[in-house]
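seq as requested:
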Amino acid sequence: MSRTGAGRRGPVSPAGLTRVSILALAVVLAAAPFLWMLLSSVKTSAEIAAFPPTFVPSEWVWENYATVFERAPFLLYYGNSLLTTATATLGQVLTSLMAGYAFARLQFPGSRIIFGILLTALLVPFELVFNPLVDLLSGLGWTNTYEGLIIPNIPSILGVFLFRQFFVNLSTEIEEAASLDGAGVWRRFWTIVTPMAMPMIGAFTILSFTYNWNNFFFQLVVVTKSELFTVQLGLAMFRTADSASGFNVLMAASTLAIVPVLVVYLVLQKQILNAVSGQLR
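struct tokens:
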């Protein structure tokens, strides 16, 4: 059997070429700001202010990253952000996973009403609950504390909704078989359901981590002491301190700020793709 032309592809259709062009343009538009930030972080102050602006640095100044740690205790900010974000994300994933499973699988009085109230609360903007939240944190003595940065962020109505929808669409055959073998609710949940939900857990983890890492407004409300500053609050200091001559240092600090989110995404990208592909099937 001849293999001539076995690896050849037919001509690309105009529709296919249009789709590829649109996707390529979308990639460029999405990546351009990040690439500009990376390149600006290694420019000199003079080149940052030059007109017309340059895209590729004429001189690569890697010392800007060292300057970040000289101007502010950025390692302390990093530690605070990692501690609060990782703890709040873990709490969000666990509570959302369990609550979503309860609403999807367990029948208890008022479950539909409670779930409807949660969905209604999801539509309430944060600005409406801002003052009561501040009063509550002050009354509990949680301002300028790690408890104030972590505990209010553990409940996630969005997470409960996402996991509930995932479990509603998940087949119950394996759970029913395990129930006939005598497995209780907790055993079915931890040994059967949780492993099957790993794609959704991975997808929600990156959403939760990104939200908690970048939750600047909430952190600004809770914290006023510099020793509890997070990365986002630290970036605000760079923006207000000599921004004209230190824009390159600000870009270096911003680049460092997105590294943890990028690492989490790279670690969990397989679970995210599995969750998306599972929803599309």
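The chain is about 70% helix and 0% strand.
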